[in-house]
Amino acid sequence: MSASVSIGSAPGGADIRIDIEELLATRLLVQGNSGSGKSHLLRRLLEESAGLVQQVVIDPEGDFVTLAEPFGHVVVDGSAYAGTEIARLATRIRKHRASVVLALDGLEVDAQMKCAAQFLGALFDAPRDQWYPALVVVDEAQVFAPAAAGEVSDEARRVSLAAMTNLMCRGRKRGLAGVIATQRLAKLAKNVAAEASNFLMGRTFLDIDMARAADLLGMERRQAEQIRDLERGHFLALGPAISRRPLAVKIGDVRTESRSFSHGLMPLPGTSAEDLHALLHAETREEPRRDAEPEPEPVAAEVLLQEIESRAETNEEAEGPSGPDAREIEEALNEILSDMAGEDGSTFHAAAALYQDFSVRCRMRRIAATHLDLNAFRRRFAIAVAGIADPSDQRWAGILRLARTVPDDLLAPFLLLAKAAQEGEPCPDDQMLARAYGTSSSGRIRRLIEHLEKSGLIVLRTDFGGRRSVGIPELGLSTAPMEA
């Protein structure tokens, strides 16, 4: 299944899309000089994918806080909290799958790096059952993963670089997909940049940056000149989530705006030179007071935690009275799980990767994936693999009641045997059991059957023709002999 969003158009007008599911597995690097349109590109990606996946934005300039009202992101002001509070917030964000913007514009660079490191570290260290899929967008990534020591302290650089390396190198298995943007590839740590498989390269002028961009795009050095000629908002794209060959893309329009200062021209004041002289040399106490909006009071950590929890509850109930009822949701979940179970090789994937796929499919059907957590998903997926399309059907009540005592990893093969016994079908062969278990080893299947028999869950019989049949003593059922 593909869940893609549009980011813009090719020179011929063709729609250019990013496959979000593929992006979660392969990460993204955006590069371009100041004014090339990097932030505009990130904003377009965030707006278009807001309904598909959880989003966490590390925002050093406070540009993305405007996503809060139209898209429901929670704004976390990094300057208002201590390190332990930031870690607690990140833990709660991971648990409740809230989309957030961590605004760091109120901090000095050294403090920004430490704050981001603690925040990313808490996301990374979440328990295994909370490894939900999330896009982690880091703007100005060269600040948090510098290639060389600068004016910041060694401690800040060390912890920040370690957090960014974890995000890009090891975050995929934890559901964290890094999307990093930088002005200068030469200033970004190579081990962080190298982990991205998708690239969007904007205008850059320095030879060293053009050369690195050309290398990442698979272009010859002499072709790198076209990167210098790109217009604002135009990028060269490459990667499994976008295109297998480099292509030009013009980023589409966005619905929100940055808080940044506009670089357009403004008319100069019409004050005369004499009046300006008087204003500039007036006593400080006589300067007119400017009516400025008061700075908002910092939100207490406990209050923000409650907001994250309530936002998560709101997302779960977003359908409202007009949304699908419980029966429709259950039918949709059964259909999604059956489709996944029927795909070749699905049982060979890790549970966390399957759950990411499940979450995307649920969002495409406008269903909250939190109807099933990771543990419940494992068992429901095993039920679907066994061919039980509707667990609520009373025909399967006895089997599923017995299955509560079966470990998660053995559930699908056991249910496959129990279903065949209930329907009087031939005993599944080793190949069928291996597919349900997610292995290619026939020896492992023999050990699996022995373990189920020693546990008292099944009784194994073999007739004189060497054909296997399996009984389920608890239910008084037995399969027919296995077909030769």
What's the structural blueprint in terms of helices and strands?
Blueprint (H helix, E strand, L loop, with lengths): L3 E6 L5 E5 H7 L1 E4 L6 H12 L4 E6 L8 H4 L2 E4 L5 H14 L3 E4 L5 H16 L9 E5 L2 H4 L9 H17 L5 E7 L7 H4 L4 E4 L5 H11 L7 H4 L5 E6 L3 E9 L21 H8 L20 H16 L9 H17 L8 H14 L9 H12 L11 H7 L4 H15 L7 H8 L4 H13 L4 E4 L5 E5 L4 E2 L6
Parallel strand pairs: 3-8, 3-9, 4-6, 4-7, 5-6, 7-8
Antiparallel strand pairs: 1-2, 1-11, 9-10, 10-11, 12-13, 13-14
Helix pairs in contact: 4-5, 4-12, 5-7, 13-14, 13-15, 15-17, 17-18, 18-19
The major β-sheet equals: 11 strands, mixed
Radius of gyration of CA atoms, rounded to a whole number: 28 Å
Low-pLDDT runs: 318-322
What oligomeric assembly is this protein in? Answer: single chain
Domain Helicase HerA central: 13-68
Protein name: ATP-binding protein
Pfam families: DUF87
Keywords: ATP-binding, Nucleotide-binding
Structure description:
By secondary structure, this protein is α/β, with parallel strands linked by helices. It has three domains: 4-260 and 299-313, P-loop containing nucleotide triphosphate hydrolases (Rossmann fold, 3-Layer(aba) Sandwich); 325-385, no CATH class; 396-484, Winged helix-like DNA-binding domain superfamily/Winged helix DNA-binding domain (Arc Repressor Mutant, subunit A, Orthogonal Bundle). It contains 19 helices and 14 strands. The strands form two sheets. Strands 2-1-11-10-9-3-8-7-4-6-5 form an eleven-stranded mixed beta sheet. The chain has a three-stranded antiparallel beta sheet with strand order 12-13-14, with helices on one face. The two termini are 37 Å apart. The model is unreliable at 318-322 (pLDDT under 50).
